[in-house]
Please model this.
Amino acid sequence: MTRLEIHLTATPKAAPELRRRLRDHTFDVRLCATELLTNVIKHVGEGTPVTVRVMGTRDHGRTRIEVTDPGPRTLPTLLPASETEESGRGLAVLDALSDRWGVERGPDRKTVWCEISHPPAPGIAPFENPRLPRAARR
Model:
């Protein structure tokens, strides 16, 4: 299992830095991590300290991304995205790219996480078929 932990201050300048630090990961992993960071900036507040964790296993072909912040009452909500809105699609993107996502709350923090499946390495049998319809995977 690989594990990366990054401590950041949630600012717009932190997003490209996070993508750079995740350059060895897939585009989907970088995009989901950036969307979770952007949610903290927008809904908890710019300057919020965050911890980003990326954990993956090559044999199971899955990566888990977690973003922890000190705002336990500010919970993410998946809203329908409109074609005319300029923002508000972050969780819709996360929902579309991930196999599953959720929130873990503590008294003084919350962690928003998602899991993304990748094609398994050659010769490794996957434990779940990521091509199944979403309803069948939950």
